[in-house]
Amino acid sequence: EKAPAPIPPNTPLNRASYRPRLGLARALARTEDTIEDAKKWYNEVMTMAPEIHDAYIEQADMLIKADPLAAVDVYCKFPFPEELTFDDAYIHGEVVRILMKHEKFDDPRLADSMIAFGRVMGITTLDKYVSILDEKFKTDMLKRIYAGVHGKDVDDPDLQAFFKFKCWD
Fold first, then answer.
1. Which runs of E-coded beta strand occur in the chain?
2. CB-neighbour burial class of residue 13 (10 A; exposed 0-12, middle 13-18, buried 19+)
């Protein structure tokens, strides 16, 4: 058998890719003692390919039990496009779920994520959260959310009638 020819020193290397890094992060995330290394690789994937949802979702899942607000921070690093997809809505929905569960009603990310989630999935997906915020008298936030989901201004006459009906005026 012939030995393989030696590789010349100036031969170009393969381009760096996020896929092997994502795979390594996934493998490292499986055991507690390599979690910090997994975070490093997930962050590298986010830097190399910021539009890849998996890196944000998986890193946030790793953090959610120990530090749920750190998971929200990871989700909020995602560079959302102008036109949102269902994958984008998933991330916004997770932000809403975590912030509501931990009663962070005044967190500015809550209303923004509720608006984005509602725009993609429909206003009825927010009903449970709207009821909770209504019980907490967060009427200004609710008005902003309803207006944002419908792509209107809070002062829109159609919405004003709805706000009056809901006793949010």
1. none
2. exposed
Nearest to 139 by CA among 160, 118, 125: 160
Residue 57 pLDDT? 97
pLDDT averaged over consecutive 10-residue blocks of the chain (169 residues)? 79 82 95 93 96 97 94 97 96 98 97 97 96 96 96 93 90
Q: Are the C-beta atoms of residues 112 and 78 closer than 8 Å to each other?
A: no
What is the identity of the amino acid at 13?
A: L
Q: Given this model, what pLDDT does residue 68 score? A: 96
Which contacts of 43-47 are long-range, i.e. CB under 8 A and separated by 24 or more positions? 44/18, 45/18, 45/21, 46/77
Burial of residue 19, with CB atoms counted within 10 A of its CB: 0-12 exposed, 13-18 middle, 19 or more buried: exposed
